[in-house]
C-alpha cells in the first residue's frame, strides 16, 4: 500500500502499524495524525475514498466520524462553562425551561454529558424525517420522563446526547452547535472539522462501507433486534444514520446531528484534541481552563452500561479508557488522565494531557465492535511505543 504524508523519525512505529492496517486488518482508505506538545509528528494517509472508483485518499479527504462528534459537542459546552456562561451543575431547566417536564426540573447539565440523565431514547415513535427536525426531537426529549432515576445508573445516549447537549448550547449561546463550533473552535484553530458540512466540500467526502458480518452477534446487536427495547429505541428512533444508503447521503452530511455526523480529516480530529493535550491552549487560541480539563479527565460514570450492555467509563462528555479484553475495549495509553471519543466503525480521537499527545484516526471501511477496533488501537499503541 502506497502511503503519503510525513512521519517524524521517532514515530516510524506508527507508520508500520498504519501499513499493517492495510495489509492484514481490512483497511480501505484512512488517515492518522498525531500531535505531540503542539507539534505534528505524524500525518499519514492512504488507500481509496471509494472501492468502486478507486479514487485515492488525500490529505483533504473528509470522513463521517459518527460519535467522535460528541467530543466536539461536549467541548462547546465546556467552553461556555469556562466563560462562566454555563454551570454544569445547574439544572438543565435553568437554560431550557421546557425541560422541567416529567420530573426533570432538577436534572443537572452534567448528567447530559456523562450519560447518567436517563434519556437515551424517547418513547414517542418518531418518523424518519425527524432525524433532521431539531425542534421535533428536542420537544420530545423535553417532554420525556427519564428511563431511570438520573444519577442512579448510566447508559450511552447514542443519538440523544447531541440534541440534549446541543440544545443547551443553543439556548445559552443563541447559536446552533455547528455554528458555535465553527466560530469558537474550528475556525480559530483552522480545523477541517464540520458539524453540518457545506455543499462545496461534499466532493471531498469518502464513501463509507458497512462493517463485515460477524459470525456471532454482540449482545448489543441482539438487543437491537427487539424494536420495543430501550436499546433499539436509543439507536433507531428516529431511524438512524446506518439505515441503508443514509450515511453516505448529502442530507446526513449537511445536517447538524451533534452526536453522530461530524465530518473531519485526521488532522482536524487530532487538532480538536491538541489544545486539550496542551493545557487548553494551542496556536495562540485558548479554549478552556484547568477546571474544564479536569472535568474532561475525571471519571464520572463507571460500570455496566444500560444501553451498550458492557462496562463503560465516561467523564463529562468524553470516553475514558475501558479494558474489557477480550471484549470491546479502548486503551488510551498508560496515563489515567487521557480521554477521547470513538465513533462507530472505529474512528478515534483522544488527548493525553500528561504526555501532551493528541491523536486522530479516520477511515471509510467500518469495522466490528462497539469501541475502537484493532486498527485504531494499534495506532494508539504505536504512538506510546514511540514515546516509550
Characteristics of this structure?
single chain, 388 residues, Beta-lactamase, 31% helix, 14% strand
Description of the structure:
- With 388 residues, the protein is of the alpha+beta class.
- The chain has two domains: 3-65 and 195-387, Beta-lactamase (3-Layer(aba) Sandwich); 76-177, no CATH class.
- Helices cover 31% and strands 14% of the residues.
- It is built from twelve helices and 13 strands.
- The chain has helices at residues 12-24, 69-82, 109-113, 134-143, 160-173, 177-189, 219-224, 230-236, 250-254, 266-277, 290-297, 374-387; strands at 3-7, 29-36, 39-47, 63-64, 193-194, 263-264, 281-282, 285-286, 301-304, 311-314, 339-342, 348-352, 357-363.
- Strands 1-3-2-13-12-11 form a six-stranded antiparallel beta sheet, with helices on both faces. The protein has a three-stranded antiparallel beta sheet with strand order 4-6-5.
- The mean pLDDT is 96.
Offer a quick outline of the entry.
The protein is α+β, with helices and mostly antiparallel strands.
In terms of per-residue confidence, which ranges show pLDDT below 50 for 5 or more consecutive residues? none
Intertermini distance: 27 Å
* Largest sheet properties: 6 strands, antiparallel
**Element-level helix/strand string:** EHEEEHHHHHEHHHEHEEHEEEEEH
CATH class of the largest domain: Alpha Beta
Kindly identify the CATH topology of the largest domain.
Answer: Beta-lactamase
Amino acid at each position: 500500500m502506497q502511503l503519503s504524508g510525513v512521519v517524524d523519525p521517532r514515530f516510524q512505529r506508527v507508520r508500520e502499524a498504519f501499513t499493517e492496517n492495510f495489509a492484514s486488518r481490512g483497511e480501505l482508505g484512512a488517515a492518522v495524525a498525531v500531535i505531540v506538545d503542539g507539534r505534528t509528528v505524524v500525518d499519514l494517509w492512504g488507500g481509496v475514498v471509494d472501492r468502486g472508483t478507486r479514487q485515492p485518499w488525500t490529505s483533504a479527504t473528509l470522513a463521517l466520524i459518527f460519535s467522535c462528534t460528541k467530543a466536539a459537542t461536549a467541548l462547546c459546552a465546556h467552553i461556555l462553562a469556562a466563560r462562566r456562561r454555563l454551570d454544569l451543575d445547574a439544572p438543565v431547566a435553568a437554560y431550557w425551561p421546557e425541560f422541567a417536564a416529567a420530573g426533570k426540573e432538577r436534572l443537572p447539565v452534567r448528567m447530559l454529558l456523562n450519560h447518567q440523565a436517563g434519556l437515551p431514547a424517547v418513547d414517542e415513535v418518531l418518523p424518519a424525517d425527524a432525524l433532521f427536525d431539531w425542534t421535533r426531537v428536542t420537544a420530545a426529549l423535553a417532554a420525556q420522563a427519564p428511563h431511570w432515576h438520573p444519577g442512579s445508573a448510566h447508559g450511552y445516549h447514542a443519538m440523544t446526547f447531541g440534541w440534549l447537549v446541543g440544545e443547551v448550547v443553543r439556548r445559552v449561546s443563541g447559536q446552533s452547535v455547528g455554528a458555535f463550533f465553527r466560530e469558537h473552535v474550528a475556525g480559530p484553530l483552522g480545523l477541517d472539522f464540520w458539524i453540518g458540512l457545506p455543499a462545496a466540500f461534499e466532493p471531498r467526502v469518502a464513501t463509507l462501507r458497512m462493517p463485515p458480518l460477524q459470525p456471532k452477534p454482540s449482545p448489543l446487536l441482539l438487543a437491537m433486534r427487539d424494536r420495543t427495547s430501550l436499546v433499539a429505541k436509543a439507536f433507531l428512533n428516529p431511524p438512524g444514520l446506518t439505515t441503508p444508503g443514509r450515511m453516505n447521503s448529502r442530507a446526513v452530511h449537511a445536517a447538524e446531528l451533534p452526536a453522530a455526523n461530524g465530518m473531519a480529516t485526521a488532522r482536524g480530529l487530532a487538532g480538536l484534541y491538541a489544545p486539550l493535550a496542551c493545557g487548553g491552549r494551542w496556536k495562540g487560541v485558548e479554549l478552556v481552563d484547568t477546571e474544564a480539563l479536569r472535568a474532561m479527565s475525571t471519571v464520572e460514570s463507571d460500570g455496566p452500561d444500560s444501553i451498550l450492555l458492557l462496562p463503560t467509563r465516561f467523564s463529562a462528555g468524553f470516553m475514558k479508557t475501558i479494558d474489557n479484553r477480550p471484549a470491546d475495549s479502548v486503551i488510551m495509553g498508560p496515563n489515567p488522565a487521557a480521554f477521547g471519543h470513538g465513533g462507530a466503525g472505529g474512528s478515534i480521537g483522544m488527548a493525553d494531557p500528561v504526555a501532551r499527545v493528541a491523536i486522530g484516526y479516520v477511515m471509510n471501511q467500518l469495522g466490528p465492535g462497539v469501541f475502537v477496533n484493532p486498527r485504531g488501537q494499534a495506532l494508539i499503541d504505536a504512538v506510546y511505543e514511540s514515546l516509550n
